[in-house]
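Running log. JK asked me to keep both predictions on one page so they can be read side by side. First protein, sequence followed by its tokens:
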Amino acid sequence: MGEVNNKFVARQAIFDQSKSTYAYELLYRDSLENFYSCSQPEQATSQLILHNHIYGDLNSLCSQKKAFINFDEKSLLAELPLVLDRNVVVLELLETINVTPDVIKIVSSLYKKGYTLALDDYDFSPKWEQLFPYISIIKVDREDISFEQIVALKNSQFIEDKNIKIVVERIETHEQYNELIKIGIDYFQGYFFHKPEMNIGHFIKPIKFNLLLLFAEAFQIDMNFDTLARVISQDVSLVNGILKLVNLETEINRVEITSIKQAVTYLGSDKIKQFIAIVAMSNLSSDCNSELLRESLVRGKMMEYVSFSPAFIKIRGLAFLTGVMSHIGAILNCPIEKIIMALPLAEEIKTALVSNRGLLSDALEIAKHYEFSENNDETCPIMARHDISEEALLMNYHDALKWCCATCP
């Protein structure tokens, strides 16, 4: 097997009917410039396993959720799944597999060992019937399979008899999601939660706007502790959260706290920023999918790591906030420019998020390009322009995931 020098893994969430994250599909890419294009797809699986399970931390990468990992025929016959924890992974059998006696034998063996197996891009071909006794999940692509076919699949006798779950991929709107909910589809995959469906006359609730003001204030270059203390004092949940955080610190140092301002000052700017980012974004996203909260924080942290490269030193103090705020339109279901222009944010942040210009915009594009798998025909010249290595960005992404896993509620 040839060596793959640049090893990149992204993840895409799979949701249940309540829009909670059920699992992540791990997506192998040979670079930031395209989707995986190797003529030997078994290299993708083996490299993914090697660098993110044996050498890495699969649980952190997937935030303690299950990991869907693709396996082609050669990877199966080489028994690569056996190095993975059966309680952590779902083995996704690619549509290119030939259902031979050897394949049936290994699939049966994996099933008996307790592994969860899924069929990817199910196309109703009769060849798959031989594998049905071992399959727990079937994935269909909404762009390849009609809605009527999805309904027929859901109502099939073998689906009911075996209690097979169905995942529908490429869900892009809430309308598509709602149609599939009505017929009882179990899981959903796609970017529908990224795209707010705008309605005329949208407004932001006052309490959420106050949180936005708090968020923006916390990330000012010259943090005003008096202002922060005043805003926090007006919200019981924020007061409770800040006191809990202080309590963890004072258990060690035995410091008596007598006011919110003292608590804020005691914690210092770094801890306060992290606290406000998590608590404020959690409250702001209470009406939308929690996955979007996690993704916002991961993007912000990833941009912060990227900003430590020499090219982005001038925007280092603004990177985290820019990354987190880049999802605020989807979180509040409101045009992002309407939100951003109403806040006391640095002009560099407004320029990046509204006009897509400047160093912050470049750092944001680097982070976004890594996150999304469907960039088949796109390139990322910004990487080369700012001398950002692929290996460094991979570490940034995984470190951001670990940080979010440790801190996000």
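And the second, directly underneath as requested:
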Amino acid sequence: MKIEIKKIGNSDGLILPRELMQRLDLKRGQSLHITELAGGGFQALPYDPDFERTMEVADEIMEEYRDTLATLAK
């Protein structure tokens, strides 16, 4: 499905077609969590505060063990 980025007031936004909103069970005003993907894409998931905290902890661990993880990746 092709979706265009449009100017909305002083910002830019995506307009999601009604049928997509219904299929994904999204509601107006609902928050989404955006994750950048390799290759320049992104993934939008319903916002979950528990997931947000889990990702913060994962970021902290990856930062703390950056050298170890880089060695393991070889």
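Observation for JK regarding the second prediction: The radius of gyration is 17 Å.
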